């Protein structure tokens, strides 16, 4: 494939890189006063990236799936699906961010610029078909995330969260690199298709260790048990807009990277890693459900909710079928909507002095003081609990259906039983907001951008979302098929 074709198929990354560099120069010349304008321009660049990505032809097995630079990146239906979802989540996070920082440490233009560079890395993660490309994208995204966690320099909790995330993230990167070195040593190549071909003829025990180390490092990135320890502390300590970002766009990128890694280079050795994924799935569902029960801080509770949802996503991966991969993509769309809605509501929960309402005691009686916000939170929490007819029920249904079709009935049964436990702490929101006495008076107005993100999220997860299931199912199935067509 020519360099012109490679440049065309990586046009999204190139365009965002140029936009990020130009905006970085503007920030250097204008300082903090241009932060709002930089944010608007960054959102415009991401909208352009969505339009360009959606217009790309995704190819077929005959033409190499639009591979770029000798097979280092691949622009197939799976990559297009994941990238568009990543960019949409990043745009939503940029919309709800400015007010939070302007009222504290001051909003700086470096934030949206780092968002752009992080989006580039996340896009590379889901398109990578070579271990080296994957690692470059992973580190580009991670370096931005480390800065985000400690972006609020005047808050010691933010600084602590950034330091914890950096140290543990570096450890996970080392584990992934060590696993990659073992895989390369036994396969003789870093290319996904070459690794699969090498392991199809001979899969030594040393290669199995490499696969385990790679999957363990990726499990840290998605906050799966037992590599979840950092999540509650980082989610609580990081600024709330940053927590919303961590729980949405990077989660999509990490799950997409894990799914492609497991099903393409390691797809011929499913039985070698399926038990690991099943354990991580069950453990994440149970730990996420039980760990959240005793939480009083709302961000820590949502951190355990994130761990719980990762467990459900891994149910689809354990199936290791096109239906399982399709279910993961459908779940990610609904999960991102629920996550952005919940954190948008959290950013709107403030008292009259502008202090955040961060605990259950703070939001008691919210239905009498801010009924619109309380009802939106009710929809989000019922959807997270998987209560029909909200769209969150469909997300769980498709992953359990894929597991049953793959013969993993015990896994589906355990997941369904554990989801009942998880419903307890989601329903606790409803009990506190609608049946307890109000203790703190919240502010009565919120920025329009926050309302837009919250209302759109609520519409997506409402019963109206079921009208999109034929289209969403078709697109997700096409994206999942791209992973198995190269098997």
From TrEMBL:
The keyword NAD applies. Its EC number is 7.1.1.-. Keywords: Cell membrane, Membrane, NAD, Oxidoreductase, Quinone, Translocase, Transmembrane, Transmembrane helix, Transport, Ubiquinone. The keyword Secreted does not apply. It is a multi-pass membrane protein. Residues 128-422 form the NADH:quinone oxidoreductase/Mrp antiporter transmembrane domain. The chain crosses the membrane at residues 6-30, 37-58, 78-97, 109-128, 165-187, 207-230, 275-294, 301-322, 328-349, 373-395, 407-427, 448-468. It is an enzyme of class 7 (translocase). GO terms for cellular component: endomembrane system; plasma membrane. One of its GO terms (molecular function) is NADH dehydrogenase (quinone) (non-electrogenic) activity. It catalyses: a quinone + NADH + 5 H(+)(in) = a quinol + NAD(+) + 4 H(+)(out). NDH-1 shuttles electrons from NADH, via FMN and iron-sulfur (Fe-S) centers, to quinones in the respiratory chain. The immediate electron acceptor for the enzyme in this species is believed to be ubiquinone. Couples the redox reaction to proton translocation (for every two electrons transferred, four hydrogen ions are translocated across the cytoplasmic membrane), and thus conserves the redox energy in a proton gradient. Belongs to the complex I subunit 2 family. NDH-1 is composed of 14 different subunits. Subunits NuoA, H, J, K, L, M, N constitute the membrane sector of the complex. This is NADH-quinone oxidoreductase subunit N. It comes from Qipengyuania algicida. The lineage of its organism: Bacteria, Pseudomonadati, Pseudomonadota, Alphaproteobacteria, Sphingomonadales. The gene is nuoN.
């Amino acid at each position: 494939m020519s360099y012109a074709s490679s440049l065309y198929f990586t046009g999204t990354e190139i365009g965002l890189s140029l936009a990020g560099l130009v905006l970085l120069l503007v920030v250097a010349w204008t300082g903090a006063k241009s932060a709002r304008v930089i944010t608007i321009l960054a959102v415009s660049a991401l909208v352009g990236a969505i339009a360009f990505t959606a217009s790309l032809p995704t190819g077929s097995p005959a033409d190499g799936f639009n591979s770029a630079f000798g097979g280092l990146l691949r622009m197939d239906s799976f990559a297009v699906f994941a990238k568009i979802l990543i960019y949409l989540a990043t745009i939503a996070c940029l919309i709800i961010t400015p007010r939070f920082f302007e009222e504290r440490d001051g909003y700086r233009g470096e934030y949206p610029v780092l968002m752009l560079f992080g989006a580039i890395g996340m896009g590379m993660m889901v398109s990578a078909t070579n271990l080296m490309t994957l690692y470059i994208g992973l580190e580009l995204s991670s370096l931005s995330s480390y800065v985000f966690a400690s972006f609020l320099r005047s808050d010691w909790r933010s600084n602590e969260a950034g330091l914890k995330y950096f140290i543990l993230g570096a450890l996970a990167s080392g584990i992934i690199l060590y696993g990659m070195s073992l895989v390369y040593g036994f396969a003789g190549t870093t290319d996904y298709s070459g690794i699969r071909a090498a392991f199809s003829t001979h899969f030594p025990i040393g290669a199995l260790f490499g696969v385990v180390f790679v999957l363990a490092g990726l499990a840290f990135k998605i906050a799966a048990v037992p590599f979840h320890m950092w999540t509650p502390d980082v989610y609580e300590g990081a600024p709330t807009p940053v927590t919303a970002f961590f729980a949405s766009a990077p989660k999509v990128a990490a799950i997409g990277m894990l799914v492609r890694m497991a099903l393409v280079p390691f797809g011929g050795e499913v039985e070698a890693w399926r038990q690991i994924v099943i354990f991580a799935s069950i453990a994440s569902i149970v730990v996420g459900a039980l760990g959240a029960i005793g939480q009083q801080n709302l961000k820590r509770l949502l951190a355990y909710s994130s761990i719980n949802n990762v467990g459900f996503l891994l149910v689809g991966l354990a199936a290791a079928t096109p239906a399982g991969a399709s279910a993961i993509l459908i779940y990610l769309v609904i999960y991102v909507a629920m996550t952005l809605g919940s954190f948008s509501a959290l950013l709107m929960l403030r008292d009259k002095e502008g202090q955040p309402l961060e605990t259950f005691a703070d939001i008691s009686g919210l239905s009498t003081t801010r009924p619109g916000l309380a009802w939106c939170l009710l929809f989000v929490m019922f959807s997270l609990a998987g209560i029909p007819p909200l769209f969150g029920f469909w997300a769980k249904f498709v992953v359990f259906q894929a597991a049953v079709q793959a013969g993993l009935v015990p896994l589906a049964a355990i997941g369904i039983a554990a989801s009942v436990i998880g419903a307890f702490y989601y329903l606790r929101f409803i009990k506190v907001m609608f049946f307890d006495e109000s203790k703190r008076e919240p502010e009565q107005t919120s920025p329009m951008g926050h309302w837009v993100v919250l209302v759109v999220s609520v519409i997506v997860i409402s019963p109206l979302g079921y009208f999109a299931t034929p289209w969403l199912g078709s697109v997700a199935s096409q994206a999942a098929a791209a992973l198995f067509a190269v098997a």
